[in-house]
């Protein structure tokens, strides 16, 4: 496998214009088309005030157009991680304008990006992208507020080199399909950066159902970027697609799901461990239940009390970063994942801030106190909440009925929360239980969900 192209050379490197970049259905976008589209949008952005532009896209080809145009124009791409209009309005101070592939009802500037541009002139190399230029991502923080994560372009290039060294030869001749969005670091790295760096055509659409995977063209071979949440919903009665390499990340893949995947595809999944803050940290090729994680070259795990601080070539802070996960470290540096610390949980492979859910609940009329917890029923984890209401809200609850009121609360939360973050289990309390130090004991609160209401 050839050396990965750095982001600054995705367009400027001397490659044929007819090099395929992305496809959707029967449509194929070439490198020449990408060069034209990026050049046009770069010129447009250079005329715009403001340095920070939010990228909100469903189509991955147009996402690449916007990402490269923003960088070549000397602007900062901001990935809010969603396209929900109410949240974009709430977060409008975080960016100067929005780039999207559809019309969004948001205040401030909106540029709708399309792929209809054509140019009859030759390609002129675009302004250089310095290694120090950054991309900003936002993810769920433990405080409930979006947490800003800054990624230098050099970090993305280095991450692509690490992954190419690990997977490169196996990916030769593959096309890239994915069931994850590019607005988070896992999708950005594996669905966008890696294929662009290695010259692998990528699917512009996201695969949402197993039927779409089964319908892949059998004349090709594929790298499938996915998550445990998708794999546990596989319909193995469908014809198996020609997947050559399957990468799963974003959550813990159960051994049962790994075995089902193997029986369907005839291959064992490769798993990636990391986070938006750290980038990729470790990998494992799952052929057994208790297979340990192997750190990537240069990654060092240092135990500190009950936590682990990680140092990595992809982490700019020399002291490293404290992990949210609880790890069991072996003497040889390999490790297993025991659990998770703090108020951020993984549900359906999405990072959900329990603090944010509580803050959204407190914004509802009549809610005086709120507590959010993960609740496991029949092997499935969802969100449960406990509420203390004022007198007016209690009277309304009695008048409307419990089910109608809960439905109204859920509808009020929908503009703000991911679907998997919407509470499924509700308890109304006279007062919130606390210990002698006036602090909530979440194990005690958890017991309130042991029986159905």
Q: What key phrases describe this protein's structure?
A:
six-stranded mixed sheet, 25 strands, 12 helices, 453 residues, GMP Synthetase, Chain A, domain 3, globular, single chain, 3 domains, alpha/beta, Rossmann fold
Protein model, in words:
With 453 residues, this protein is an alpha/beta fold. It folds into 3 domains: 1-152, 3-Layer(aba) Sandwich (Rossmann fold), CATH 3.40.50; 207-341, 3-Layer(aba) Sandwich (Rossmann fold), CATH 3.40.50.12780; 345-447, GMP Synthetase, Chain A, domain 3. It is 28% helix and 28% strand. It is built from 12 helices and 25 strands. The chain has a 6-stranded mixed sheet. A 6-stranded mixed sheet has the order 9-11-12-13-14-15. The protein is globular, with a radius of gyration of 23 Å. The model has no long low-confidence stretch (mean pLDDT 89).
Q: How many structural domains?
A: 3
Biggest sheet, spatial arrangement of strands: 6-5-3-4-7-8
Compute the average pLDDT.
89
Shape: globular
Number of strands: 25
Our Rg estimate from Cα atoms comes to 23 Å
- The CATH architecture of the largest domain can be given as 3-Layer(aba) Sandwich
Brief sketch in words of this structure:
The chain is of the alpha/beta class and 453 residues long. The protein contains twelve helices and 25 strands. The mean pLDDT is 89.
């Amino acid at each position: 496998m050839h050396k990965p192209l750095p982001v600054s050379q995705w367009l400027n490197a001397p490659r044929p214009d007819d090099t395929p970049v992305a496809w959707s259905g029967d449509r194929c976008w070439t490198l020449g088309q990408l060069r034209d589209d990026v050049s046009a949008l770069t010129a447009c952005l250079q005329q715009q005030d403001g340095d920070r532009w939010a990228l909100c896209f469903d189509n991955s080809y147009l996402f690449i157009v916007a990402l490269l145009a923003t960088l070549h124009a000397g602007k900062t791409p901001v990935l809010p991680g969603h396209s929900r209009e109410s949240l974009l309005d709430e977060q409008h101070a975080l960016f100067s304008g929005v780039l999207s592939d559809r019309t969004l009802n948001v205040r401030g500037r909106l540029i709708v990006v399309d792929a209809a541009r054509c140019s009859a002139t030759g390609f002129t190399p675009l302004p250089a992208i310095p290694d120090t230029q950054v991309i900003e991502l936002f993810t769920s923080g433990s405080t409930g507020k979006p947490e800003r994560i800054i990624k230098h372009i050099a970090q993305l290039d280095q991450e692509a080199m690490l992954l190419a060294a690990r997977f490169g030869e196996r990916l030769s001749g593959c096309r890239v399909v994915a069931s994850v969005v590019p607005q988070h670091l896992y999708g950005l790295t594996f669905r966008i950066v890696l294929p662009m760096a290695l010259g692998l055509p990528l699917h512009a659409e996201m695969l949402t159902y197993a039927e779409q995977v089964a319908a892949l063209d059998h004349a090709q071979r594929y790298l499938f970027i996915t998550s445990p949440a998708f794999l546990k919903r596989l319909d193995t009665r469908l014809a198996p697609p020609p997947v050559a390499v399957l990468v799963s990340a974003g959550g813990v893949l159960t051994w049962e799901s790994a075995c089902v995947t193997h029986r369907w595809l005839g291959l064992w999944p490769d798993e990636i461990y990391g986070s938006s803050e750290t980038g990729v940290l470790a990998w494992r090729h799952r052929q057994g239940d208790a297979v340990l994680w192997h750190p990537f070259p240069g990654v060092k795990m240092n135990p500190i009390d009950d936590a682990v601080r990680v140092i990595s070539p992809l982490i700019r802070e020399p002291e490293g970063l404290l992990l949210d996960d609880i790890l069991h470290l072996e003497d040889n540096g390999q490790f297993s994942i025991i659990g998770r610390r703090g108020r951020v949980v993984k549900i359906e492979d999405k990072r959900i801030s329990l603090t944010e859910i509580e803050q959204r609940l407190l914004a509802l009329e009549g809610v005086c106190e709120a507590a959010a917890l993960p609740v496991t029923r029949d092997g499935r984890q969802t969100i449960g909440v406990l509420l203390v209401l004022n007198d007016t809200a209690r009277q309304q609850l009695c008048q409307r009925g419990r089910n109608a009121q809960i439905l109204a609360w859920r509808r009020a939360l929908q503009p703000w929360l991911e679907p998997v973050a919407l509470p499924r289990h509700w308890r109304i309390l006279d007062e919130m239980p606390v210990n002698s130090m006036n602090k909530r004991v979440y194990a005690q609160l958890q017991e309130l969900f042991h029986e159905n209401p």
